[in-house]
Amino acid sequence: MLYLEKRKDVCEVARMMFDRFLTNAAGGNISVKMSDSRFIMTPSLMSQQKFCRLKPEEILVVDSNGNIIEGDGKLTREFNMHMAAYDAMPDAGAVIHAHPKESMVFASLGIEMPHMCEATRKLGEIRTLEFAPATSKELADRVNSYLRSRAGDIPVATLLCEHGIVVIDKTLRKAYDMLERIEYNAYVNIQAKLFELTGTVKHTNHASSLSYNLEE
């Protein structure tokens, strides 16, 4: 089996995403770049039908045109969005698309997510792109255009209006790490707003007065 260990890792990350409410039965997908012309990718309906309980043989090996080289299952309908991300960011090693529970609040409202946690500041902005239908060429083009504007930035993440999130990093584990950081940041944002609304405390933004560690 091609790329067995890497495919096992994709299975593990997919399971973690589902179990930790980082995606839901409505979808989500993962891809890892193995070379300029080969990728491994989760199959269509990995969440709805399998609840992200995948076997290595169900992780597809595909080329950049979407031809399946090895693996049991159908190509995800978000294939074009993944390829759009790799096209825009040649240094990208992995792409995670997910529907994280807390971050979906910001995506559905169509607003930028502020940084409340130091752990996400290396991303710069976490904005929400203008709406485009899921799985559409329009969405892939919108993601590609935005990522080209951030071409020198890895990791990078962007919210998809009413849809979810895309996280790009050099490795799958790094992309997953950033997905969790963003989700915690979303949770803290929402809870902090409740404190502000009840008059308990007003948040102080330390970004202008402190030096943050933006390394690993």
TrEMBL record:
Domain of life: Bacteria
Native source species: Marinithermofilum abyssi
Protein name, UniProt field: L-fuculose-phosphate aldolase
Matching PANTHER family: 3-OXO-TETRONATE 4-PHOSPHATE DECARBOXYLASE-RELATED, FUCULOSE PHOSPHATE ALDOLASE
Gene3D superfamilies (alphabetical): Class II aldolase/adducin N-terminal domain (3.40.225.10)
Gene Ontology biological-process annotations: pentose catabolic process
Domain Class II aldolase/adducin N-terminal, chain residue ranges per copy: 8-190
CC terms in the record's Gene Ontology section: cytosol
UniProt keyword annotations, A-Z: Lyase, Metal-binding
Single GO molecular function: aldehyde-lyase activity
